[in-house]
């Protein structure tokens, strides 16, 4: 099987994440897309907004439910931190030798991809699929190890969701079913009682 790895902090997971994952699984030739929960992005080590892994994992599980072709993978939670994509890929390749893996990233991350640990190895050994992000034009990519997918774009972010929650806005329709109720029940992201 060909597996697309869509990593992120999912802080929180929102409908844009779900729409993208579903589109990629159905239209980009992946047998499955695994949403990889990242405990600590090496390029965001100073972030103070990241809630504990257990909450983010629960929200991801709720969002996916038993959706065919999409899976949550929490392997990075048990790996050394910060979390490097190349280490995850190597681990998954050993654990699942029957699968081939590709990394899925947004155009925002593609602009800084050369800063990633062992970026050339990721390209050579696995390949990268890049999807559009508002405000980050792709330009032309001259590398056959990179596939550009013109996935639908939702101009929504976890930052927008967190700020809305902290300001008392109703985020019901921006989040997968049940996730906003979970956030309210656990008073996450500065939500007042």
Question: What is shown here, in short?
Answer:
This protein has 193 residues and is an alpha/beta fold. The chain has helices at 15-27, 53-64, 85-95, 107-110, 119-125, 158-166, 179-186; strands at 2-8, 32-37, 70-73, 100-106, 128-131, 146-148.
Please characterize this protein's 3D structure.
Helices cover 33% and strands 16% of the residues. The chain is α/β, with parallel strands linked by helices. Strands 3-2-1-4-5-6 form a six-stranded parallel β-sheet, sandwiched between helices. The longest helix has 13 residues, at 15-27.
Set down the secondary structure blueprint.
Elements: E1 2-8, H1 15-27, E2 32-37, H2 53-64, E3 70-73, H3 85-95, E4 100-106, H4 107-110, H5 119-125, E5 128-131, E6 146-148, H6 158-166, H7 179-186
Parallel strand pairs: 1-2, 1-4, 2-3, 4-5, 5-6
Percent helix range:
25-40%
What general form does the structure show?
Answer: globular
- The count of DSSP E runs of length 2 or more, i.e. the number of strands, is 6
- Please identify the structural class as seen in this structure: alpha/beta
- Rg value: 16 Å
Distance between the termini: 46 Å
Beta percentage is 15-25%
Mean pLDDT: 92
Oligomer: single chain
The helix-strand sequence is: EHEHEHEHHEEHH
**How many H/I helices?**
7
Biggest sheet strand order reads 3-2-1-4-5-6
Q: Give the low-pLDDT segments.
A: none
The major β-sheet equals: 6 strands, parallel
